[in-house]
C-alpha cells in the first residue's frame, strides 16, 4: 500500500499501453523463436538432402566402377588373352597410316566446293 502512495495513480490509458507493450514483447519473442525454429528445420532438411545426394553419388560411382571393371574383364576375356593372334606388320601399319594422312589432306577446307 505504501507503493501506491508514493506513485501517482495510472490512468486507464497508461495501464492499457503497458499491457499492450507486454503483449507485443511476448508476441515478438514468440515470433523470433518460431523464425529460429524454421531456420533450424531448413538447415536440418538441407543437411539431410546433402547426405542423401552424397550417398546417391557414391552409389552411382560404385556402379560405374563395377560396370567398367566388368567391361574390362569381358574385353580381356575376348581380346586380351589371345596371344596367338598375329600382329600387323610394320610395313602394313606405316602404309595404312600414310594412306590415312593423304586422305585427310585432300579433305582440307581449301579444296571444298
TrEMBL record:
Q: Which organism is it from?
A: Hucho hucho
Protein known as:
CLK4-associating serine/arginine rich protein
Q: Where is the composition biased (Basic and acidic residues)?
A: 43-55, 63-79
Q: Quick one: where's region Disordered? A: 23-113
